[in-house]
Design goal:
This protein has 179 residues and is an alpha+beta fold. It has helices spanning 13-36, 71-83, 104-124, 149-155, and strands at 43-45, 51-55, 91-96, 132-136, 158-163. It has a 5-stranded mixed beta sheet.
Length: 179
C-alpha cells in the first residue's frame, strides 16, 4: 500500500511569468501614482486594470478656439514626465477635448490639434514618439455644463491615459519564478 501526502503543482510556466508581469505592471502604476500625489492640480483615476488616467482639473489648458498649451498646463505635463522617469509603459494616449460651442466637425479637428500639441510637447521633453498616441474627442465627453463660461473652460482640456506594460519598472530587482 502506497500512501502519499503533499501538494501537487499544477501551474505551468506561463502562469507564473504572467503573475510576475502583472505584479511588475501594478508596481509601476502604483509608483507613478505615488510620484504624482504631491502635485497640485493633477487628478488620477483608474478606468481599467493597468490604465491610469491623468487629468488636470482647474487648469486652464487651452484658450477658446485655441490649441496652444497654457504655461500652467506645461508645468503639469512636466510633472507627469518627471513621474514617468524610470518607468516603462506600453503607451501614453493624449485625449484632446473641446466645449460644445461651434460646429461639431470643427470641434473634432480642434480636439485632435490639442492632443497633437500636447503629444509634441511630451516628445520635446524626451518621451519616445513610438509610445505616444493623440486622439481628439471633440465635445463628446464633457465634464462640466457647456451652458456656462466656467463649464466651457473646464471642457477645453486634455487628459492622459497611461497603459502600463509587463516589466514596467526599469532597473527593478524582480525575480520571476517558473516552476
Amino acid at each position: 500500500m502506497l500512501l502519499a501526502t503533499g501538494c501537487v503543482a499544477t501551474s505551468d510556466n506561463n502562469s507564473s511569468a504572467s503573475v510576475a508581469a502583472n505584479a511588475d505592471s501594478a508596481r509601476a502604476q502604483t509608483l507613478f501614482s505615488a510620484r504624482l500625489q504631491p502635485a497640485d492640480g493633477i487628478a488620477l483615476s483608474t478606468p481599467a486594470e493597468h490604465l491610469l488616467k491623468v487629468s488636470f482639473p482647474g487648469v486652464t489648458a487651452f484658450s477658446h478656439d485655441g490649441a496652444g498649451l497654457s504655461d500652467e498646463l506645461q508645468r503639469q505635463l512636466t510633472a507627469v514626465i518627471s513621474a514617468l522617469d524610470g518607468i516603462n509603459y506600453q503607451h501614453l494616449t493624449v485625449l484632446g477635448h473641446t466645449d460644445s460651442s461651434g460646429r461639431l466637425a470643427y470641434n473634432n479637428t480642434l480636439s485632435q490639434q490639442r492632443a497633437e500639441q500636447v503629444m509634441t510637447f511630451l516628445q520635446q521633453q524626451g518621451l519616445p514618439a513610438t509610445q505616444l498616441v493623440a486622439e481628439g474627442r471633440g465635445p463628446a465627453e464633457p465634464i462640466a455644463d457647456n451652458t456656462t463660461v466656467q463649464g466651457r473652460a473646464a471642457n477645453r482640456r486634455v487628459e492622459l491615459v497611461v497603459s502600463f506594460a509587463e516589466n514596467s519598472v526599469t532597473g527593478a530587482n524582480v525575480t520571476a519564478t517558473t516552476d
